[in-house]
Amino acid sequence: MRQRRPMDAPEIPIAPMIDCVFLMLVYFMTTSSLEKSEADLPCPVGSAGMALDPLESIDEQQMTISPSGTVLWNGSSFDLLGSSTGYRSLCDRLKTFLNTCRLSGSEPSLRIQPHDDAPYQAVVTFLDAATLAGIEAIHFP
């Protein structure tokens, strides 16, 4: 009779498993980012002695954009889509508003209320005029 050999325990090949783990490590290292990408937004910080109501220090004006693309502001209307004179007069008025706010020591702020049917071009033209005038605080309700 033949003598039986003792059965060897099955072996798991380690080298391919190490290769797979290494490839996964390289993949995750290349796809992850170490620093978060965030926008740097300026945030004014007041001192401990300043307890002002923020609504008192900001001069806010309400603007309405009609379905025809006309900006209505304090009883005045500026046609943004019809001619360039409406755009120029709005820019001049916004610059005057900015200078008045700076002289009074307040921050200028605009709140735009476009009509549901107002053309997008009128809103973009208004934002362009406000940016050209130097007003940074523009809000939508």
Automatic annotation (TrEMBL):
One of its GO terms (molecular function) is transmembrane transporter activity. It holds the Pfam family ExbD. Its main location: membrane. It is a single-pass membrane protein; Single-pass type II membrane protein. InterPro entries: ExbD. It is found in: Cell membrane. GO terms for biological process: protein transport. Keywords: Cell membrane, Membrane, Protein transport, Transmembrane, Transmembrane helix, Transport. GO terms for cellular component: plasma membrane. Belongs to the ExbD/TolR family. This is Biopolymer transporter ExbD. It comes from Oceanipulchritudo coccoides.
